Amino acid sequence: MAYSQPAPAAAASRLSAKAATFTESVIREMTRLAIAHGAVNLAQGFPDFSCPAELKDAAKAAIDADDNQYAITWGAPAFRASIAAKVARAYPGWDVDPDTQICVTCGATEAMIATMLGLVDPGDEVILFEPFYENYGPDAVLSGAVPRLVRLRAPDWTFDEAELRAAFSDRTRAIVVNTPHNPTGKMFSRAELDVIAELCQRHDVLVITDEIYEHIHYLGPGGHIPPATVPGLADRTVTVNALSKTYAVTGWRVGWTIAPAALTAGIRKVHDFLTVGAAAPLQAAGVAAMGLPASYYTDLAAAYQARRDLLCDALTEAGFGVSQPSGAYYVMCDTSAVDPDGDDVAFARRLVSEIGVAAVPGSSFFADPADGRHIIRFAFPKREETLREAASRLRRVRAGR
Ligand SMILES: Cc1ncc(COP(=O)(O)O)c(C=O)c1O
């Protein structure tokens, strides 16, 4: 008989074609190495300080009140209403209907993949700015989209308008914007968003914008411009956000999308079958988060600015070429002076095992690893004492050269 079964062992260990195309997250791998070596973990972007007491109290009260069963799949009504109210306070004129335009998800991560799966077809092109947050590549693969990369260039991490124009075609379905931007700290300007708006209208393209660092920036009031508020983009923008970074609860896994009703309907359907919903008592605590006063956000930005300055000074002193971020909580560094070999992965491993500081090799943020070989990224959502400990360890980098 010509027909033969594949050997059971080989079949059992085979990955799907999609899963086989991407590797394990390097960021999570560096976190594991940091634990193994007792290193200060400036790799993964999670705070090592407490979340606001209001959130903890509200979560505990919700559990005690037996708010422990499934919430409505696209989000508890009170939480959706509080998100809409907070958006209206932060960005007057941006009106969100909590009944039809919000889908609560398990973090920004699920918000992004539910959006891609709900709105993008296999073969559609999706424009990504490079360097990019490492999830966007696998998100594109999982949804069958074809990524089109447009480079953000140092020192101000802007894009070349002609290059962006050339990336748009009748195959383009969406462009992913991330502002404030991980890993560069770039904030998209009004002029840049106007160019994106013109191109998206001309080619009938969606904007999927990840604004998880919306309140963590150093430009002062009005510095962050949500693409959904840019003329021409309101009816074609999906805004992705989460409690994770703003309220120091990355482990809670509560996020959301804001989008026109027709787009939200697609996201909600996918979300329902992916996860059913985010944790009900933590959505109740999300209401408390959305109710925090404006001063919470000013204090947050000021605290992050002090952390940024401390780490940037230490890195400069250690011999790194520092690119000072305007937003988010990462510093991209040029390692040419401290790692003449230009092997970012080997350098990051040495940094963990010999210096005791974990960071992320630059190749994680580029499609071609060679483009990141002189780059390393440090995260600074940490207590002052943690950053001071990292700073004192980093002094040995310069000494060791
Ligand atoms: C740009 C960006 N989007 C999304 C996420 C993940 O968000 P969440 O933890 O809410 O899934 C991160 C985390 O580092 C991020 O940097």
From TrEMBL:
InterPro entries, per database record: Aminotransferase_I/II_large, Kynurenine-oxoglutarate_AT, PyrdxlP-dep_Trfase, PyrdxlP-dep_Trfase_major, PyrdxlP-dep_Trfase_small
CDD domains reported for this sequence: AAT_like (cd00609)
Cofactor(s), names only, from the UniProt record: pyridoxal 5'-phosphate
SUPFAM superfamilies assigned: PLP-dependent transferases
Keywords: Aminotransferase, Pyridoxal phosphate, Transferase
Aminotransferase class I/classII large domain mapped to chain residues: 40-394
Record GO terms (molecular function): kynurenine-oxoglutarate transaminase activity; pyridoxal phosphate binding
Gene3D superfamilies (UniProt xref): Aspartate Aminotransferase, domain 1, Type I PLP-dependent aspartate aminotransferase-like (Major domain)
A cellular-component GO term for this protein: cytoplasm
Top-level lineage group: Bacteria
Family: Belongs to the class-I pyridoxal-phosphate-dependent aminotransferase family.
Protein name stated in the entry: Aminotransferase
Organism: Pseudofrankia asymbiotica
